[in-house]
Amino acid sequence: MFYIAIGSSAIEDWEPTGISEYTDVPKLAQGVQTGDGLLLFNWFSDTRTASIKALGHVLQSDQPTATVSISWKEVSFEIKPGSQGFRHWRDKWIVHLEPSRVDAYDLKNRFATAFNDDAFLKARVNASYILRKNVDKDIESIIPEQGFVYLMFDGELWKIGKALNIASRKKQLERQLDKPLELLHSIQSDDYSRAEAEMHYRYRHSRIRGEWFNLSPDERATINGVSQISYSKS
Hints:
Layout: E1 3-7, E2 17-22, H1 26-31, E3 37-44, E4 49-62, E5 67-79, H2 86-91, E6 94-97, H3 99-104, H4 107-115, H5 119-122, H6 128-132, E7 147-153, E8 158-163, H7 166-177, E9 182-189, H8 192-202, E10 207-209, E11 212-213, H9 217-224, E12 228-229
Parallel strand pairs: 1-3, 9-12
Antiparallel strand pairs: 1-6, 2-5, 3-4, 4-5, 7-8, 7-9, 8-11, 10-11
């Protein structure tokens, strides 16, 4: 299961102690899965504190029909994210919490107490990167962000990836792979996660593993000819 913080502005109504049914909520249905634990919060920038007003247990989330059913329990406690994490709470309406944060905030015990269910104590907490892989090229990302899709070469294969800061990502990859990489091209996008998914789909026939592809000269030339992928309707 995932533990996910949801800004109160994203949930118009909820039962303080009961079940709420939401319809026509494609972003929420995309962002949460059946069985997830939710934290409904208000953010206070002056103290960099998230005030948790309710805990939710997702009873059903169906992306094709854009419907979500949540059991809520009213609570009152505060979370003070660290210097690196507070920006997510401040700037985003949905925050997927890493297992280390779940432990730091003692969320398993809080949910077990609120719902009177020890199953929360035993459930495996998934890492948020698993969810981020479920990006659909035909669906706007949960939180569209300006960023880049890059093409890098390791001497054998080409990597199609995404980054907010390509230089930092390149250094990170070189440390992980213990080899130099050559940055060949970058594409700017107003929804870089979706753009990456689109590029992976276009060249799926050349995929070797993960984000690594055996691209032909023509395919590389085509990618080099793309400078921007925009999904804006304006």
